[in-house]
């Protein structure tokens, strides 16, 4: 730096060209490689989902089928809609799509700990969650150590537009100059690390080519929270699962109150009103 700011007066600073070669570029490379390491570790440690039993899939798809019918009812003719709704309502009412017979009303839900299969599934889900947390946490700790060890205390760049003073704490982390008053637009190495960590998402998508699989690399906090994928969160031991019998009863009531309106009703009149004057 060739000029300094003293006595509370803010002046421009001139950064050495070595900052770009020895701090800026290596720091960006470290952040980029850290994200790629998290991505490939997540791919290695993530197990493919196990195929579910046919009865479980049928139970889930029955609920989805009723929801799709409600959302797209207007595209069916009246006779087809009434017949399909009656069929689904009868099936949801008598529980023919349930994988197990519905328990009597008022009975306590079954304890997942009594079922060895449910318990095994819960433990596998918790293990996968811990692996995802480690994928986000361990590389993140290593990257933070490297940044604080080799790049902390450096000014890297200046934002090309003025910023209010409230941005000083955000952009100048790791910089303490009691005799120097810096403008809020100056960015420190630690702050630049956080900006790169949360702003390189499109770069990761371009490199790995899979946006769903690269979420942990783009945002390490997702991996630390157990996320980073489309898989459902694991059920904790002792927690009750979904009561599909109750969900089926609620969906049957929703089918009763659905507002049906066929899209082809009066289509001839609408066509004549729109194009009849051109004939």
UniProtKB/TrEMBL annotation:
Source organism phylogeny: Eukaryota, Fungi, Dikarya, Basidiomycota, Pucciniomycotina
Name of this chain's protein: ER membrane protein complex subunit 3
Disordered: region residues: 99-119
Function: The EMC seems to be required for efficient folding of proteins in the endoplasmic reticulum (ER).
Gene Ontology biological-process entries: protein folding in endoplasmic reticulum
GO-annotated cellular components: EMC complex
A Pfam family assignment: EMC3_TMCO1
Recorded superkingdom: Eukaryota
Biased amino acid composition, Pro residues: 101-113
Predominant place of localization: membrane
Membrane topology qualifier: Multi-pass membrane protein
Family classification: Belongs to the EMC3 family.
UniProt keyword terms in alphabetical order: Membrane, Transmembrane, Transmembrane helix
Localization terms from the record: Membrane
